[in-house]
Amino acid sequence: MGALAQLHVRGAAVDWDAFFGPRRPVDLPTYAFQRQRYWLNTPHETTTASTSDHPLLDAVIDLPADEEHGGVGGIAAGGRLSLQRHPWLAEHVVHGAVLVPSTVLLEMAVWAARKAGCDIIDEFTLEAPLVLSRTADRDIRVVIDGKHVISVHSRGKGETEWTRNAVGVAGADTTTDPAGESLVTWPPVGAVDVPFEDEYARLSDAGFHYGPLFRGLKQVWRHGDALFAEVELPAAEGAEPGRFRIHPALLHAALLPVGLAQVVDDSRPEGWLPSRFTGVRVHPAEATGLRVRLAHTGENALSVTIADSSGVPVGGIATLTLRPADVAKLTELSFDHQDSLFQVEWAPLALTPAQATARQPEFVTDLDELAATDAEIREIPPVVIATIDRSDGNDTPAAAERNIHRVLRWTQDWLSDDRYAESRLVLVTRKAIHDEQVPHTDPAATAIWGFVRSAQTENPGRFTLIDTDDEPGSEACVPAAAQSTEPQLKIRSGTVSTPRLAHARGGPAQDAPVAPDLGGGTVLITGGTSGLGATLARHLVERHGVRSLVLTSRRGQAAPGAAELREQLTAAGAAQVEIAACDVTSRTSVARLLDAVPSGHPLTAVIHCAGVLDDGVVEALTEDRVDAVLAPKVRGAWHLHELTRHLDLSAFVLFSSVASVLGTAGQANYAAANAFLNGLAETRRAEGLPASSLCWGFWAERSGMGGELGEADLVRLQRQGVQAMSSHEGLALFDAALSRDEPVLVPARLNLPALGAAQAGHGGSPLLRALAGTTSGAGGGTGGRQDAGIRLTQQVRSLPQAEAEAAVLDAVRAQTALVLGHADTRKIGPSVAFRELGIDSLTALELRNKLAAMTGLKLPATLTFDYPNPSSLAQFLYEGIAPDAGTDPASPADHLAKEIEELGARLEGAFLELAAEDQTTISTLLGELQGRVRSMASAGSPVAVVDQISSASVGELLSLLDKELG
């Protein structure tokens, strides 16, 4: 067979009919990335014949009798768990970790107990989470000794010690009714339905992401203090439902209603996981459907009764105790440096005539053309295309600055002018994206992509990026490509493609060493006296044997901690550590620094870490703020590039940011600066020079630029799927990235299920769709939150006005809590000003985007400033969703109450900004006003007061408020 295959791929004619005989052809998938197996599963790959009948364990052996245990032996079983062998395990993700469900460990313990002749698990405690990675297997051992002590252990590649994940004790079943309450009558008489449709979405928001196999909950009822549930095992390839006593995914679904049973405090943001089982009985059933009863038995504990779909008892759990999830431990165990390196790939996109609009796009050389005097009466086309001129090549950093200034002006004008509200601006660059047809990129054009990617994140659906080559066929494709729903496109020789972030392929380059030799000479680290630079310097000395270092910062030896850092590096083995003051934005200063490198230890590696932050939404940026962020990254890197290109360097490493790839909101200037670094690295590689641009995710250590991030920023990153990396993890990724041959890599910890949630809520980068498992489209994927928005709209239009307004207010409060990182919506008071709640310009923009996606309404960027509290904003949204609802005219008292609430919200937003004496004046006026109202109320009955309010007193009161409060 192998010989024939070799002949076939070399072009020889092979008579396959003669070889195979009669056979039926198999249709291959039309979509290249649709994986489907066409051969038998072999779950028991071992070097010897399998001796186990368990689907997750390959071999089982009897242990010899031990006199210490009364002459009774035990058993030991082993196997390998991996996402390749058991792909259904990948559907259980908790806080970003692929966590083997507790029901899997429990099922293996029950199997071992049966092998040893025991009927029941008296007690089973989970000790350490069993976490799987995408790239490596994990050996597993299940042991039950002569005393019937059961333990489950695991060990990954390279680990010398076994980890005990669970331990328990098996025993004999002496009860006469092991199943407890009968479940034959179904549902129980008097039970009431319990809505559960939003439970998976709630769990997802809490970090618990379940795939289709783990979504088997079908119906829930409540009867007294107990919950009753019906679960079924969904069909799934490779799940092997008939080989378990009760499939772990089915038992997991049976435990899902715990949140509905109010057994635990659901307001805890980390969520809850099983901790301890007692009195576990599982009879051989091979059921695909179960009936379940859950009853509260104590603090964070419940009992579980299980029957098959006809009510026949199949087992139960006397007590299941839960504990809060250990997020830090799960994050630590889920790290895999081979699984945290990504790169940008491009997938072909077929343009169809249906994507073209009735009106063709309009080309402009500048937006001033659209802002001409006759624009007032002119209809703006739905798509406007503007081309960015290529840089002249004489001063690339200056060209990058000019490009970003121009794009800054365009994007701000586009967002601020209401005439463009229903249109989309398409920005066309040339040779910004590296590939085989464009080996020499233009870094000044690449910077534009970083900037606009952030503008896209902040303002979904308003901007499109297209990069072309110089081919005439590519130019001809621009109009059709511009009318597609894709936000980022590349056109090469008339072929259109879209970007996606993918796991870095393969391993180290075969013709390259495992990593560059960084210890042969002097290593220069810009920004090397604090933060990541200092951390990296220590790593280079301790791990790579670097003995000569030059570390720079603006203050040099006067920088905080510089002297202590030198002492640490010297103690670790560095023979020479020079800490120098250098302004990397000055070519003269950089040249002077390089000239000072000792000839005995010539410069062999450059690592450019210097940078500054000045975050703000696109509308708030200025040219000065842009230039301040561009300078150290762009000009510093360019000076180092030009002044070292004649040297024989082993490495030229640029510390970029994931913002350049994903377009982080509020960081358009920073994304542009780092995108320039990516383009420079690709240009150097094309010229045969060493270069690596590492687009880092978020480092956990709060130092340097990362120290300027607030809690809201961290919550936003985590919600978008970017997890913090420890220094240990980041340095491991640094080493792994240097061993790769790609010029641009993204080392980052990404929570893939969270990415899917962000895509479903229209809050993620289009580059994340493939990793998140969502589909194409301008807005990202579809899913839970979009469905929730559809349900909200339908609900509002079907409910009475008061209930509909309450539903919209609940949605506003929930989304506000989400963007602020609050697990409890009760912290969001309906009349509390957004400013007081902590909403800033960036969170206001994010809230606007979420509400726009949820309601389908076009909402202004000034939404939370126009409607300054959840109550007034909810009323505005309600009127937009159901403009014809509510035929009953509001009473004068309703009008008055509404206007007083709005005025109170304005007061809450402005009062704290007043000077002390002004605050005193306003307080006095309010006191006088309150006295007037009280005197009016005391002058007559409540009815008389209402009568006064319904007449002239309305105008008098509002006039007084406006006059005295401004």
Describe the fold and architecture.
The radius of gyration is 32 Å and the shape is globular. The strands form 4 sheets. It has a 14-stranded mixed beta sheet, with helices on both faces. Strands 1-2-7-8-9-5-14-17-16-15-13-12-10 form a 13-stranded antiparallel beta sheet. A 4-stranded antiparallel beta sheet has the order 6-4-3-11. The longest helix is centred in the last third of the chain and has 23 residues, at 916-938. The chain is an alpha/beta fold and 966 residues long. Mean pLDDT is 82; it is low at 30-49, 509-513, 776-786 and 941-955. It starts with a helix and ends with a helix.
Task: Name a few traits of the molecule.
single chain, 966 residues, alpha/beta, 14-stranded mixed beta sheet, 13-stranded antiparallel beta sheet, 33 strands, 20% strand
User: What gross morphology would you assign?
Assistant: globular
Provide the residue-averaged pLDDT: 82
Number of strands: 33
Low-pLDDT runs of 5+ residues are 30-49, 509-513, 776-786, 941-955
Largest sheet: 14 strands, mixed
Give me the Rg, rounded. Answer: 32 Å
Oligomer: single chain
Annotation field: number of helices: 29
Walk across the major sheet and give the strand order: 19-20-21-22-23-24-18-32-30-29-28-25-26-27
Range of strand content: 15-25%
Give the N-terminus to C-terminus distance in angstroms: 89 Å
Structural class of the helix and strand makeup? Answer: alpha/beta
Summarize the structure.
By secondary structure, the protein is an alpha/beta fold.
List the helices and strands and how they pair.
Layout: H1 2-9, H2 16-20, E1 59-62, E2 75-81, E3 92-94, E4 97-99, H3 102-115, E5 120-126, E6 131-132, E7 138-144, E8 149-156, E9 163-171, E10 192-193, H4 199-205, E11 208-210, E12 217-223, E13 226-232, H5 248-255, E14 272-282, E15 289-298, E16 301-308, E17 313-324, H6 327-333, E18 341-348, E19 362-364, E20 383-387, H7 396-416, E21 424-430, H8 443-458, E22 463-468, H9 472-482, E23 488-492, E24 495-503, E25 522-526, H10 531-544, E26 548-553, H11 562-572, E27 576-581, H12 587-595, E28 603-608, H13 623-644, E29 651-657, H14 659-662, H15 668-686, E30 692-696, H16 711-719, E31 722-723, H17 727-738, E32 744-747, E33 749-750, H18 752-760, H19 769-772, H20 784-798, H21 801-820, H22 834-837, H23 841-855, H24 863-866, H25 870-881, H26 892-911, H27 916-938, H28 942-949, H29 953-965
Parallel strand pairs: 19-20, 20-21, 21-22, 22-23, 25-26, 25-28, 26-27, 28-29, 29-30, 30-32
Antiparallel strand pairs: 1-2, 2-7, 3-4, 3-11, 4-6, 5-9, 5-14, 7-8, 8-9, 10-12, 12-13, 13-15, 14-17, 15-16, 16-17, 18-24, 18-32, 23-24, 31-33
Helix pairs in contact: 3-5, 7-8, 7-13, 8-15, 10-11, 12-13, 13-15, 20-21, 21-23, 21-25, 26-29
